[in-house]
Design a protein that fits this description.
Chain A: GO terms for molecular function: lipid-linked peptidoglycan transporter activity; peptidoglycan glycosyltransferase activity. Chain A: Its main location: membrane. Chain A: Its EC number is 2.4.99.28. The structure holds two protein chains of two kinds. By secondary structure, chain A is an all-alpha fold. Chain A is about 70% helix and about 0% strand. In chain B, helix 13 crosses helix 15 and helix 14 packs parallel to helix 19. The longest helix of chain B is centred in the first third of the chain and has 28 residues. By secondary structure, chain B is an alpha+beta fold. The chains are: A mainly alpha, B alpha+beta. Chains A and B meet through helix 7, helix 12, helix 13 and helix 14 of A and helix 1, helix 2 and strand 8 of B.
Chain lengths: ~400, ~600
């Protein structure tokens, strides 16, 4: 990369500004959230600052490497990260989950590396010239490529990160041009299981399906099995679920999602909502938050950083953070659209999907509209691996932006 | 190239989805921060939201047949719930209950220093009439509330109190240590016996209720947004103890007899009964022990809180002779038939001291069998001199002395077997230890063993030389019925040859059944009983009375050790008690209904 490229029209300065602003807000929020009577936390903002420096260095390197190298190294990187994901299952658990490998001086989360690696591999598969989606079974290879890391992450267990693989897969397949109809019918079984929580929502979903059959003019011989299998899956879910005893459900839920913590989650979400709500329009002011002193540690500087921020900076602050994220994602989508290289375009949209999913799920949890899932807020949450991964992915986006007219 | 990626339709769809998602977040934020701001601002003002602990009931303790030994009962507490204007209520309550109001108030102030905003428990476990009096006057006590908590109840009072242990509430200093493990201030925790050992199983996980309180700290009801979280009850534990045998064994200690009894199943190491007398009533501790009760317990010269079965080491006296005999046989110093150099004439001169045999007239020439049957001290003095301290300490160690058995109870005493190094430290480098080894050979002098160790060794002999670790836990089961941990049977072959074991078993049988033997009072009609009495001299007073034995000889079902402090001869006090314990157990197991295979008395 030549220095003058930074002055080029294709260097996405707006995205860089948005990311810098978010990182600065993150450091401030972490500082505020950790200035409580827990001296072991008070220096975390400095550690985060160090990770930020390292992440920015990597961001610049990622920008400099021609993206063809990512394509060339996609499979080796994928294999290495799958091996690490396997290895982490044998590492000693931290807070009941096998998410970290401890190298003594630094703790590393293989699932973070697996995100870009999986994006590269999917991009490579989907961008191949002989790959088309004219037959449904052709999806099996990309499904396999994403199912492997998603399953390995799920058994760590880490539900949130596992779902982020689903998000990037669906987005990238959609980007490839899978027809709306097929896309809808691909996700419909999942929707069926979710919709079945209440009778009206399930009836609504069935009506939606019928509408989709009519709208997409699905032939009867395809529509009938799709419809029946959706009814089957939907009706099976509650039968299995309510067939379990309540403690079995609790055990199953906490096994899949240890962040759920049936003894603490309700308290966390309630405290988070009180923090956000009591912030009001203007907020209580920097370092003036009172909720953070209450006991929803240790997540208030990691997964619940948004509620600390929202308490101190109010609705105005929330608006600014949401706009920054929206702008970052919007610029990313522009880059994905303009990239002429198919691999680069897929990579860009995959990265956008991951960042967007994290933002929506994390903030949704702190606002009490999503079930508790331990997933960090990009650029803001405390945590070195997460911050560095996000900056690396930003670097890749900027890289693709710089070379958007290259084939 | 034809690039269908990023077509207008795809980009617009993704943008629409993105906008939808962010709008949801924005509207939700606006709803919380603008529309509901007042509500949440009120809740966030300090003290407004409180998490009330719903204590989990402690797990139950059962015996091997499902007889309930320890459970929980409700207790009514008088709790101070408001921060302001509390003094009038406390004064009034003190008057109603006849308590010192100054004392109550100072305890409130003390606890407020640690937990300024938490409710304060004024009085724990009110009597029913006190509850009634408070309830009648509750409208005059605006700062107070009656709360129910779950308290420990030992079903059978003081029976098996040492074994089961007791619970008491966490004090300030302990709370600091236990908070990491999820305990709250005032939680009940096992403080002794199995309640302590299996605390992690017995304790449950607390539930929570979320309540909103007013500025004075008064309850405004639960917050609907957060669901009440039900507690998980603690796990139940099942013991190897047979309650019928335990209560019989306890009843044998009549009056103010002090001592211990241990019964073990030889093939498994299951402890069938474990008695220590005097005992205490664990229910006194349930809601915090009163200071006069506590002082009475700790100042009692008979130490009722002390578990003599596992924590007290006594000189084992003649019951230890099997160890000396086993050592001599295994070191090939003697053969079973061989007579000792010097016959017993009632005493033996060693150096310039005279060591007496318990029988003044002496036993004459004896082989090993006869020496054990007659419990001849002079015979064993000579074995001790041959073995020296080194041989005796090595074999005692081999047979499980000077070490904990590893029973699943806290604070087990390892006993003491002195070795050469120990004596050198005690008596100087070149001390003569010949006399000491003679004394040690008959279980006197510095040798110390717990009743549990003795029972455990005889159980191993009964079981053909295979020692089983004594244990009390059959299983722990969580409240859903899932078995968390099962019985752990751990076996170890003692380094004794089969012939040694069989010689010793025959000798122990003789020591109960042959003429001139001392253990006759332990005989169980209809089965072959084996065992050894002991009359242990001790510096603190009259001799301790011992009996350790097992039955039936050929297919042992139970091994028993009984010790009665300062009660005199083992043959008169301990042996009949052990006999009754074995008899009862064999009767319970149906052994005594079987046809009698061997006559109880040879010759």
């Amino acid at each position: 990369m030549k220095l003058k490229m930074l002055g080029s029209r294709d260097f996405d300065l707006q995205m860089v500004i948005a990311v810098f602003a978010l990182c600065a807000i993150g450091i401030m929020a972490i500082y505020s959230a950790t200035q409580i009577d827990q001296p072991q936390l008070s220096g975390l903002w400095q550690k985060q600052l160090f990770s930020l420096g390292l992440g920015l260095l990597l961001l610049v390197i990622m920008m400099a490497v021609p993206f063809r190298y990512f394509e060339a190294f996609a499979w080796p990187l994928y294999i290495v990260s799958m091996i690490l994901l396997l290895a982490v299952l044998f590492a000693p658990p931290v807070m009941k989950a096998h998410r970290w490998i401890n190298f003594g001086f630094v703790r590393f989360q293989p699932s973070e590396l697996a995100k870009p690696a999986t994006i590269f591999v999917l991009a490579k598969i989907l961008s191949a010239h002989d790959f088309s989606l004219d037959k449904f079974w052709k999806l099996l290879v990309p499904i396999g490529a994403v199912l492997l890391p998603a399953a390995l992450v799920l058994v760590e267990p880490d539900l949130g990160t596992s779902l982020s693989f689903a998000a990037l897969f669906l987005t990238m397949v959609f980007w490839h041009g899978l027809s709306f109809g097929n896309f809808f019918f691909m996700v419909s079984p999942v929707l069926s299981m979710v919709a079945v929580v209440s009778m009206p929502s399930w009836i609504g979903f069935m009506a939606l399906m019928a509408g989709a059959f009519w709208f997409f003019r699905v032939r009867f011989k395809y529509a009938l099995p799709i419809f029946l299998s959706n009814i089957f899956i939907g009706s099976l879910a509650p039968a299995v679920w309510y067939g379990l005893k309540s403690y079995q459900r609790k055990r199953l839920l906490t096994f899949i999602n240890p962040d759920l913590d049936p003894k603490g989650a309700g308290w966390h979400v309630l405290q988070s909502k009180i923090a956000v709500g009591s912030g009001g329009v203007l907020g209580k002011g920097f370092l003036r938050g009172t909720q953070k002193k209450l006991s929803f540690l240790p997540e208030q500087h990691t997964d619940f950083i948004f509620s600390t921020f929202a308490e101190e900076f109010g609705f105005i602050g929330v608006l600014i953070v949401l706009l920054l994220f929206f702008w970052l994602l919007f610029r990313g989508i522009i880059i994905a659209r303009q990239a002429r290289n198919r691999f680069a375009s897929f990579t860009a949209i995959g990265i956008i999907a991951v960042i967007g999913f994290h933002v929506f799920l994390n903030i949704g949890v702190t606002l009490g509209i999503m079930p508790v899932t331990g997933i960090p807020l990009p650029f803001l949450s405390y945590g070195g691996t997460s911050l560095i991964t996000m900056l690396v992915m930003t670097g890749i986006l900027l890289n693709i932006g710089l070379r958007r007219y290259e084939y | 190239m034809a690039n269908e990626l990023g077509s207008r339709e795809r980009v617009l769809s993704i943008l629409a989805l993105l906008t939808l998602g962010f709008s949801i977040l924005l509207f939700r934020s606006g709803y919380l921060q603008v529309v509901k701001h007042g509500h949440y601002a009120r809740l966030s003002q300090q003290n407004r939201l409180r998490r009330l602990c719903i204590p989990a009931p402690r797990g139950l303790v059962f015996d091997c047949n499902g007889v309930l030994i320890a459970q929980s009962r409700p207790g009514f507490d008088l709790v101070l719930v408001t921060v302001n204007d509390w003094q009038a209520s406390v004064n009034k309550a003190a008057g109603l209950l006849g308590l010192d109001s100054l004392l109550l108030k100072s305890s409130v102030i003390l606890q407020r220093k640690i937990f300024p905003k938490d409710p304060v428990v004024l009085v724990r476990d009110l009597m029913p009439e006190q509850v009634a009096r408070i309830e009648e006057n509750i409208q005059y006590l605006p700062a107070l509330r009656l709360e129910v908590e779950s308290l420990r109840k030992a079903e059978h009072g003081s029976l098996a109190s040492h074994l089961v242990g007791y619970t008491s509430s966490l004090g300030q200093s302990e709370y600091a240590r236990y908070r990491e493990r999820g305990y709250s201030y005032g939680d009940y925790i096992g403080k002794g016996g199995l309640e302590l050992k299996y605390e992690n199983y017995l304790r449950g996980v607390h539930g929570w209720d979320f309540i909103e309180v007013d500025a004075r700290g008064r309850d405004l009801g639960t917050v609907s947004e957060a669901e009440r979280i039900e507690p998980d009850p603690g796990s139940n534990i099942y013991l190897t103890i047979d309650w019928r045998l335990q209560s019989l064994a306890e009843s044998l200690f009549t009056g103010d007899m002090i001592g211990a009894a241990v019964a073990i199943e030889p093939q498994t190491g299951r402890v069938l009964a474990l008695v220590s007398r005097p005992n205490f009533n664990p229910n006194l501790f349930a809601a915090g022990i009163r200071s006069d009760d506590w002082n009475r317990l700790v100042n009692d010269p008979s130490y009722p809180l002390w578990d003599r079965a596992i924590r007290s080491a006594y000189p084992p006296g003649s019951t230890f002779k099997v160890v000396t005999a086993a050592a001599a046989l295994e070191e090939s110093l003697i053969t079973p038939e061989q007579k000792m150099k010097t016959p017993c004439r009632g005493s033996l001169a060693i150096g310039n001291r005279v060591f007496k045999c318990w029988k003044k007239g002496g036993h004459g020439w004896l082989g090993l069998h006869g020496a054990i049957v007659n419990s001849c001290d002079v015979y064993f003095y000579q074995l001790g001199i041959m073995l020296k301290i080194k041989g005796l300490s090595k074999w005692s160690q081999n047979l499980g002395f000077n070490q904990e058995t590893g029973i699943d109870l806290p604070q087990e005493n390892p006993g003491l077997i002195p070795d050469d190094a120990w004596y050198q430290k005690r008596l100087g480098k070149n001390a003569k230890t010949v006399g000491r080894s003679a004394n040690m050979s008959i279980g006197q002098g510095e040798v110390m063993a717990t009743p549990l160790q003795m029972a455990s060794l005889y159980a191993a002999l009964a079981n053909g030389g295979v020692w089983c670790q004594p244990h009390l836990l059959l299983k722990a089961e969580d409240f859903t019925g899932k078995v968390l941990v099962g019985e752990i049977i751990s076996r170890k072959k003692l380094p004794l040859s089969d012939s040694t074991v069989s010689v010793l078993k025959q000798a122990l049988y003789g020591a109960v059944n042959e003429p001139g033997s001392t253990g006759g009072a332990s005989r169980v009609w209809g089965v072959k009983t084996a065992g050894k009495t002991g009359t242990a001299q001790n510096p603190h007073g009259d001799d301790h009375s011992w009996f350790v034995g097992f039955a039936p000889l050929d297919d042992p079902a139970i091994a028993v050790a009984v010790l009665v402090e300062n009660a005199g001869h083992g043959s008169e006090i301990a042996a009949p008690m052990a006999g009754k314990i074995m008899q009862r157990y064999l009767a319970l197991k149906g052994w005594l209904e079987k046809p009698v295979i061997a006559t109880a008395r040879p010759q």
